[in-house]
Structures are given as structure tokens and as C-alpha cells.
């Protein structure tokens, strides 16, 4: 469970996130929407205890990011889009294992987790090859596996499908559904409205760091009287100047 409670983040005088509140339940895939610079990554970084909120608090499975950051980190897996930062001279397996060992996983458990993830993400063919020569999509799969190696309850995915082709994006979507069935809490940011539409029932829409909407996609469409998510998005971005 993720409980965002009136959270704010200032960088100097600039408020990147203001008075933000929403809740994501276990077993839910929740979408975080907003244009470039809206505050999505900042919000996820606060959830992962990489950044401290300047106002409010966030609870992850009941633990406060302010008071119990160690407990939070143990329960959270985070994946950022863009440069995934793998060690090129190590194999896919070694990259994932390195992260697993940082989480204190026992060798036997680590082997088991890597086998499961490698099967789930269709990585068996290249799991023992060095990642230096991997394509972007292959690297992204390794990064996804690394995010999930310690079997976290709460999974934060910041534009995770960037660079994935249609097949890999499908594998990814199936994996998200499976994690949802396992009762994981999944927060997902994307600029791809088609993907949001396929994966999420509920979304939060933020604009310039403030919440504009939180609820089901049906409610969102009803509220704006527009069916197409891209059009709703544009209406929010263009319709408000504060
Ligand atoms: N470390 C920082 N110092 C100063 N300003 C920052 C910092 N990190 C983020 N910001 C600012 O906060 C705002 C929100 O940025 P954030 O990265 O959260 O947006 P985003 O919604 O993830 O955008 P995108 O869709 O482009 O990834 C931006 O104006 C950004 O410039
Ligand atoms: Mg971002």
C-alpha cells in the first residue's frame, strides 16, 4: 500500500510538488500522469526515500518514509526510465545478483529469484552474456529484473516501457498483471496513454506539482466529458495557468 499524505517538495524556492495526496492499494496498478516536469519522478523519489519531502509524509506498507526509511527501502523496488546504469562488463545474471546481494538475499534464494525473473521476462537466452553489447530493450529487461530481485511489495515504475519493442512491451504488461495477481502494489508513470488504459483502473493526474484528479479512468472521462485520454491530458495542461 502507498499512502501519500499532503506531500510537498521544494527545491530552494521552487515547489516541484505541492499538497499531494492519493492512495494506492495492494493488488492495484495505479497510473501517475502528468506532462514533462509535472513532478512524477520527484514523487516517486520521495516514495523510495531518495528525496526527503519538505511537507507531509508518505507511508509504504504502513512505514513512514520520514521515520522508517530502512523498512521502506526493503519493501520497495524502483525502476527509472532512460539510462538504466548497468555494469557493462558483467553478465545480466551478475548485474541482477549484485543488486540482490545488496539487499542481503541468500545465494540460494538469489539463484531462485533470478531463474524466476529470467523466465518471466524471457531473458534465458542472454542471461549469461555481458550486458555491454545488449540492445536497449534487453538492457531494460535486466533493469526490470534488478528492480524485482528482492521481491518487493511495492513497485514504482517510472516510464518503464521506454525502449521496449511490441513483444517486450507485451511481456512487460503480462508481468505487471502477474504481480498484480500476487497482490503487489504497483505505481506506474507513462506518457503512453494506450498503455495506461490497458494497465490501470485508477490514476492520479498531476499538473505543475499539484493534484488535478485522482480516481478511476471512467470518472476521469466523465469529469472532462472527453473519451480520449490524450485529449483529456491536453485539456488539463492547456486549461490551467496556475
Ligand atoms: N534536484 C532538483 N533540483 C531542482 N529542481 C528539480 C530537481 N529535481 C526536479 N526538479 C524540478 O522539479 C520539477 C518536477 O520534475 P520531475 O522530474 O519530478 O518531473 P516529471 O513529472 O518526472 O517529468 P518527466 O515527464 O519529464 O519525467 C521540474 O521542474 C524539475 O526541473
Ligand atoms: Mg520523470
UniProtKB/TrEMBL annotation:
The keyword Electron transport does not apply. SMART domains: AAA (SM00382). Keywords: ATP-binding, Nucleotide-binding, Transport. InterPro entries: AAA+_ATPase, ABC_transporter-like_ATP-bd, ABC_transporter_ATP-binding, P-loop_NTPase. It comes from the Bacteria. SUPFAM superfamilies: P-loop containing nucleoside triphosphate hydrolases. One of its GO terms (molecular function) is ATP binding. The keyword ATP-binding applies. Residues 2-233 form the ABC transporter domain. Belongs to the ABC transporter superfamily. This is ATP-binding cassette domain-containing protein.
Amino acid at each position: 500500500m502507498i499512502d501519500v499524505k499532503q506531500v510537498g517538495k521544494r527545491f530552494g524556492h521552487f515547489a516541484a510538488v505541492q499538497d499531494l495526496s492519493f492512495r494506492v492499494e495492494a493488488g492495484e496498478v495505479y497510473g501517475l500522469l502528468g506532462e514533462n516536469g509535472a513532478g512524477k519522478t520527484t514523487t516517486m523519489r520521495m516514495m523510495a526515500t531518495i528525496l526527503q519531502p519538505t511537507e507531509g509524509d508518505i507511508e509504504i506498507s504502513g512505514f513512514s518514509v520520514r521515520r522508517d526509511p530502512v523498512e521502506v527501502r526493503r519493501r520497495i523496488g524502483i525502476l527509472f526510465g532512460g539510462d538504466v546504469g548497468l555494469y557493462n562488463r558483467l553478465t545480466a545474471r551478475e548485474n541482477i545478483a549484485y543488486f540482490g546481494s545488496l539487499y542481503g538475499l541468500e545465494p540460494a534464494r538469489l539463484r531462485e529469484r533470478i531463474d524466476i525473473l529470467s523466465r518471466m521476462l524471457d531473458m534465458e537466452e542472454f542471461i549469461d552474456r555481458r550486458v555491454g553489447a545488449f540492445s536497449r530493450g534487453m538492457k531494460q529487461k535486466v533493469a526490470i529484473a534488478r528492480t524485482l530481485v528482492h521481491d518487493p511489495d511495492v513497485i514504482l515504475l517510472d516510464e518503464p516501457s521506454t525502449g521496449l519493442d511490441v513483444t517486450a512491451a507485451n511481456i512487460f504488461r503480462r508481468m505487471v498483471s502477474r504481480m498484480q495477481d500476487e497482490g503487489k502494489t504497483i505505481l506506474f508513470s507513462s506518457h503512453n496513454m494506450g498503455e495506461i488504459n490497458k494497465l490501470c483502473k485508477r490514476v492520479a493526474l498531476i499538473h505543475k506539482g499539484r493534484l488535478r484528479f485522482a480516481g478511476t479512468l471512467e470518472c476521469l472521462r466523465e469529469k472532462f466529458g472527453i473519451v480520449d485520454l490524450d485529449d483529456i491530458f491536453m485539456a488539463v495542461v492547456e486549461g490551467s495557468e496556475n
